[in-house]
Automatic annotation (TrEMBL):
Belongs to the type I cytokine receptor family. Type 5 subfamily. It is found in: Membrane. It comes from the Eukaryota. Binds with low affinity to interleukin-13 (IL13). Together with IL4RA can form a functional receptor for IL13. Also serves as an alternate accessory protein to the common cytokine receptor gamma chain for interleukin-4 (IL4) signaling, but cannot replace the function of IL2RG in allowing enhanced interleukin-2 (IL2) binding activity. Interleukin-13 receptor is a complex of IL4R, IL13RA1, and possibly other components. Interacts with TRAF3IP1. Interacts with IL4. It is a single-pass type I membrane protein. GO terms for molecular function: cytokine receptor activity. Keywords: Disulfide bond, Glycoprotein, Membrane, Receptor, Repeat, Signal, Transmembrane, Transmembrane helix. This is Interleukin-13 receptor subunit alpha-1.
Amino acid sequence: TETQPPVTNLSVSIENLCTVKWTWNPPEGASPNCSLWYFSHFGNKQDKKIAPETHRSKEVALNERICLQVGSQCSTNESDNPSILVEKCTSPPEGDPESAVTELQCVSHNLSYMKCTWLPGRNTSPDTNYTLSYWHSSLGKIHQCENISREGQHITCSFTLTKVNDSSSDPQSVQVMVKDNAGKIRPSFHIVPLTSRVQPDPPHIKRLFFQHGDLYVLGKNPQNFISTCLSYQVEVNNSQTETHYILSVEEPTCDSSEFEENLEGTICFRVPRVLRDTLNTVRMRVKTNKLCYEDDKLWSNWSPAMSIGKKTNPTLYITMLLIIPIIVAGAIIVLLLYLKRLKIIIFPPIPDPGKIFKEMFGDQNDDTLHWKKYDIYEKQIKEETDSVVLIENLKRTSQ
């Protein structure tokens, strides 16, 4: 095999936000007997390609430098030695890397709108005004997100996806760039495939009923999704047993052939071992699966709850709550009334010896007290008599 000259005029350009395009000219002095093919790959020999076109493009986040190497050869065999490889790289974004936003991520909500969140960079002023630009293949030009807001430390912005065209065979993706109005921070780029980071809306429960001893749940998928692309969870809460039961299924577990009614456009699930004579509350949620999407981690919110069965009559519980305190109060009153009698019966009183002796010798004590009072009276009479005699003697002596 004859080695061909290298390609010429290799150049690189940026289209839209994150589409990089390399173009080159055929080599000068190539053999006229050679049908030129071009061998190209990115750094570290990634994404090797052999094609006759003199251009190559790649959708890539431009947060780092991207390099493409291109050589010419005369066949489609990768083992053939191509010409000397020519390399061309993109320029890295301008600005301080510490000023770029961090944790930039976007989630597609029900394939209807996309919500992007990020954190400010380290070397960024707190009052920085951010702008988010986005583009996808169905847009004629780059658009800017209008409703930027703050949620705690995170900054968010949402924009519609209703114009995304799914007719193309190529996977659709959204290109996103975040920077500031003044151009002081380093731009951050992000590419979001529409087959990843998708969170569906909650499904809708249409009807619940029992049949053949099982609970059947009829629902409707969220808009923009089909059953084969979703995984399901059905939650049943029983009010009497306080059980919490979750049924995880990859696809509906019953079809319209089991029922007389038409279930076209309806998803159906059969939940076994559900008590029929009690109140059962049912909810549903969904997530995308790996059959249609790259990501299968984002569950939707739970659907509005729907109940079936008989609610336990609260009259009995209310009656018991009223009767029990009355019974307890009555028992306490009876115990208080008969407590003294019960105490006498259980613990009879012990006779008081002092009282017994007092009763035996009560008369003698009274006589003794009477004689003591008499002696005191006699003593007082005697003292008064002596005083009168002394006064009379003094009067006589003075005369």
